[in-house]
Amino acid sequence: MNSKVKRERSTNCIASELELLVDLVVRHNKILENKKTDAVTANVKSKTWDILAKAFNSNSLNGFQSEKCLKSKYEHLKKGCR
């Protein structure tokens, strides 16, 4: 039988949280926008997203956002700017 698993939803981002996300990503831009795909770089990027998520959630007004959610939101913002 097919058991559908609902995806985990989080609260919607408000404008001030989007600005906070962009500011945090700009601080770590050299690491997060690195084009390398080796294991060391991937590990550093993962740790950086974890640090970024902790900083975001400590300053967030709206609720908890996972690093996966923040990364997805940032990628979506980048696509929207193109």
Automatic annotation (TrEMBL):
| Stored InterPro entries | Myb_DNA-bind_5 (IPR028002)
Sorted alphabetically, which keywords does the UniProt record give?
Transcription, Transcription regulation
Pfam families tied to this protein: Myb_DNA-bind_5
Superkingdom field: Eukaryota
What region holds the Myb/SANT-like DNA-binding domain? 9-80
Q: How does it assemble?
A: Self-associates forming complexes of several hundred monomers.
Q: What does this protein do?
A: Involved in transvection phenomena (= synapsis-dependent gene expression), where the synaptic pairing of chromosomes carrying genes with which zeste interacts influences the expression of these genes. Zeste binds to DNA and stimulates transcription from a nearby promoter.
**Protein name according to UniProt:** Regulatory protein zeste
**Organism of origin:** Macrosiphum euphorbiae (potato aphid)
